[in-house]
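Dig into these lines:

——
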Amino acid sequence: MALLSTIRGATWGRLVTRHFSHAARRGERPGGEELSRLLLDDLVPTSRLELLFGLSPCLLALRAARRSVARLLLQAGKAGLQGERAELLRMAEARDIPVLRPRRQKLDTMCRYQVHQGVCMEVSPLRPRPWSEAGEASPGDDPQQLWLVLEGIQDPRNFGAVLRSAHFLGVDKVITSRRNSCPLTPVVSKASAGAMEVMDVFSTDDLTGFLQTKAQQGWLVAGTVGCPRAEDPQSSEIPITSCLEFPWDRPTLLVLGNEGSGLSQEVQASCQLLLTILPRRQLPPGLESLNVSVAAGILLHSICSQWKGFPTEGERRQLLQDPQEPSARSEGLSVAQHPGLSSGSEKERQNES
């Protein structure tokens, strides 16, 4: 039975690929009546693959070409495909990737009722790269280098949101602790709006040793803590400063800790400075801190706004007035660098789902 299932899946994949290839040679637009005929509910399961879901993650994964793709699954029910869905189909055809059209109920079940927007792909997993593959960077190469270090981030949606902010704001590298950290799952990719598919994420088994090594090389290791209360005794000899008062004048590692417990004592002891976000009102117990992904966005923006290539006030005003004008953009900041990471296009895709 297993052999028959394997043969059946392989045969169907060849038939689907041949079908689209013939359509392309006839000069037909992807989608339309040709695509609507490809309905399949009895999908053959595949092993050692994971199901990537969502329009942006799938589109960016195909563009980045870092994963092996077994099949593209497009929701049945529409006669034709337009925009980014049509691009997905063209890219899949160019790479001889079988395209299937299961009904929505089947996709819902396969995705465990995650928001898939009618697009899924069976792909090989992504893994964080070993830190040894990142290459050395000297502080003298660029005084405004910013690396984001994550210790024990476990919630996949937090992890994805942090990656999205890091990519948007121009973080140079992301390093995670291998122990007690969320892996690079499809949920992380969806929460990052696909940013995970185009970013290099590294990991290390010895986060404390990594931080100490970078400090010896001249990097500033800046940890993060919740807002200290006046009645709390100073629990650390490491200076604490507001992120708004932090001068970014040297290569910096920004270190964020676990959602519940924050930085471990060993990692915090390796920091030279602790940054915090000050509230604008008195807060009751339990509300003294922010969600880690929200805090990451605030901290990164407060630092990156000091970047020499960050748009000035006049440039920002011009960018808002004419966001499609290339001359209005700063050379170092391109919101449209990866379509799918901007809020406007995301709303359009959600409306299409």
Observations:
- Residues 243 and 275 are 5 Å apart (CA to CA).
